[in-house]
Design brief:
The protein is 27% helix and 23% strand. By secondary structure, the protein is an alpha/beta fold. It is globular, with a radius of gyration of 15 Å. Keywords: Amino-acid biosynthesis, Aromatic amino acid biosynthesis, Isomerase, Tryptophan biosynthesis.
Length: 198
């Protein structure tokens, strides 16, 4: 069954809804964003998260040393890198990693094969803006399904199609479970249910 990551969480109540309804991963954004949380805030939020739920921290072009510091403070279980981080950068991170790749005009921006030890996340050209990428254009055979995560414009209306097309390890949603820029508990619940049915 496909796992679900609810990303960009800032409030205890939203985290509780995500966990109660079956999300396996919750995401804290540490990069500049309207969903950004400070490490100290994430540490408080993480305090009530059960150990079987993976806490993921999202970073963009941060140094491995700073990532390791924040990951230890919170503490995180997985580090998600959304910038131009190299395989060497990820090798210096003390935690399991997710490497995000933007898909633009049907092409993956980067070499997935350079990151054999990371989960691979395919995202839209601009993360967090609720837009999908061209699913049809991406050559699926070369993608490691057992390590593949799909993001970018997912919501309750299209997550089934995404799972059918890619058969990924996990799906990752942020704006697709928001109303007016704020996490919507009903949308979180319905998204998780739909993903689990797919």
């Amino acid at each position: 069954m496909t796992q679900v990551k609810i990303c960009g969480l800032k409030y205890q109540s939203d985290i509780e809804v995500a966990i109660a309804h079956g999300a396996e991963m919750i995401g804290f954004v540490f990069a500049p964003s309207k969903r950004q949380v400070k490490p100290d805030e994430a540490r408080i939020l993480a305090g009530n998260v059960p150990s079987y739920i993976k806490k993921v921290g999202v970073f963009v072009n941060e140094t491995p040393a700073e990532i390791n510091r924040i990951a230890a403070l919170v503490p995180l279980d997985i580090v998600q890198c959304h910038g131009q981080e190299t395989a060497a950068d990820l090798a210096n991170i003390n935690y399991p990693t997710i490497k995000a790749f933007q898909v633009k005009n049907g092409k993956i921006n980067g070499d997935v094969a350079m990151y054999p030890n990371s989960l691979i996340l395919l995202d839209a050209p601009i993360a967090g803006h609720g837009e999908t990428f061209d699913w049809q254009a991406v050559v699926k055979q070369c993608l490691p399904k057992e390590r593949l995560m799909i993001a970018g414009g997912l919501d309750v209306t299209n997550v089934t199609t995404a799972i059918q097309q890619f058969q990924p390890f996990a799906v990752d949603v942020s704006s697709g479970v928001e109303t007016d820029g704020t996490k919507d508990p009903e949308k979180i619940i319905k998204f998780i249910q739909k993903a689990k049915e797919s």
